[in-house]
Every structure is written in structure tokens, then in C-alpha cells.
């Protein structure tokens, strides 16, 4: 089941610095981001780390691009660790709590001061 989240997050792609994206939805099989050029996502499978806008790490996963549509990109999870389903459920809980609380972002503050 795909859960619509629609939450701003800071996303690390591989070892690159985090960038702001909108996490649109999350399921046991994958995740969808909006607001980034599809060219930011490598064609090969790589590690991704999702942080709440307050800096708290929510989910680290290995994934590959499953589809692209404009500024939306769907990633399929690869290399699922034991307990993957529980990790995704925990990430959903934290993301939804963050969306409700509207936490501020250290990345946004850093960018604003630059």
C-alpha cells in the first residue's frame, strides 16, 4: 500500500550534500520525490538518506530509479535489509509527525544565511 506523505525532506543522494525535496509517497516497495530535476538521480542503484527538515535521519535505503515524470521521480528499494517493512513503517510515522508539527530546517537556515 502506498501512503501519501507530501512532506518536505532533505535528501542525500550517494555522498552528495543534502538537497531539499518533497517526499510525495512511501510504500514497502519504493518512494516518490518531487521538486528535483530527474537528472539529480543517478541511473544506477545507489544509497539514499532521507532526513526530516529538522535534521533527524528518517530512512536510509538502497534504491534505483523506477520511473520519471517531469520533476517527479519514483525509486524502487533494492537490497532490502531484514526488518525492512518495520523500518518503512517507522519512517512513515516520523514523517507524518513532522508534517503535523511543521519543523524548521537546519539546511534552509544555512542556505538563508549564505
Which key terms come to mind for this protein?
single chain; 114 residues; alpha+beta; Thrombin, subunit H; 2 helices; 6 strands; 23% helix; disordered C terminus
Question: How would you describe what is shown here?
Answer:
This protein has helices at 84-101, 106-113, and strands spanning 3-13, 19-26, 30-34, 46-52, 57-69, 72-78. The chain is of the alpha+beta class and 114 residues long. The protein has one domain: Thrombin, subunit H (Beta Barrel). It has a six-stranded antiparallel β-barrel. It is globular. The model is unreliable at 103-114 (pLDDT under 50).
In short:
With 114 residues, this protein is α+β, with helices and mostly antiparallel strands.
Q: Mean of the pLDDT scores?
A: 86
Strands side by side in the biggest sheet: 1-2-3-6-5-4
N/C terminus separation = 41 Å
Number of domains: 1
The number of distinct helices, counting runs of at least 4 residues, comes to 2
Measured as a percent range, the helix fraction is 10-25%
The largest sheet, given as strand count, sense and whether it forms a barrel, is:
6 strands, antiparallel, barrel
C-alpha geometry: globular
